[in-house]
Input
Amino acid sequence: SSPRTQTYAQRAAKNPNAAARALLEVIERKKSNLCVSVDVTKRDEFLNIIDTVGPYVCLIKTHVDIIEDFDLSVIEYLKELSAKHDFLIFEDRKFADIGNTVALQYSGGVHKIASWSHITNAHPVPGPSIITGLASVGKPLGRGLLLLAEMSTKGSLATGAYTEEAVRMARAHRDFVFGFIAQRRMDGVGATDTDDVADEDFLILTPGVGLDSRGDAMGQQYRTPKEVVTESGCDVIIVGRGIYGKGGSVDVQAVQAQAERYRKEGWAAYLERIGQ
Ligand code: BMP
Output
């Protein structure tokens, strides 16, 4: 059977990337393919939301560069919450520069992303050197990389031949790149006759997921967990504002209820896909 119809646990057993294996295992353990994207600007709110949604998620996605009162103690708390609630961390950094620059951005600066983020991502636009640059920092630490093969936004340029090239780049670096930010499964995309893609299993993490809205005023487009997971074969749903609304003060019960609602929907969509 193809990865599309296998369980997360079956796929974990075969995955060569440590970060991918860890993610698939936590998904199975917690029966959650939900990643919450915590896009708020104050550290207390950031940590409060994470502590609240923690039990319901496999992964927390961050944009640490939007936190106004950031210092490295935020990361210490984040790591404590990751251990307390059993989730992985994904800094959505979207690297996009030459290898030397991204290696510096990934390892250093104020945020020191590689030291705490199990997963990060990059735009394929510079070509394969962005992967080797990031791998020089991330591989020795057991990290994993996702390429942005598609985007959820209206008018995205990441389509067609660009998406196919992104998959080819990943295929040539399977030791570090374990999947994509995309809107559909990518196994075999852009493959030629000489590529062995029979066992290919790229993880697909998908933003632009919402149950109550089809988009926002700035080009975001939402699909439901069923559309994303059952119909398009994606593996992880990424949900931000659908869970915590506009941000501000955190209504713990409301945020918990939304997180459980998306977890349930995402898991049901997966069970339907694998025929259980
Ligand atoms: P929301 O669910 O509130 O729309 O947030 C979506 C999150 O996913 C944001 O953090 C955004 O940066 C990210 N994202 C996206 O929406 N579309 C993409 O194609 C890639 C992303 O990383």
User: Anything to note?
Assistant: The chain has ten helices and eight strands. The chain has a mean pLDDT of 97. The first strand starts at residue 34 and ends at 38. The beta strands are 34-38, 59-62, 88-95, 119-122, 144-148, 177-181, 203-206, 236-239.
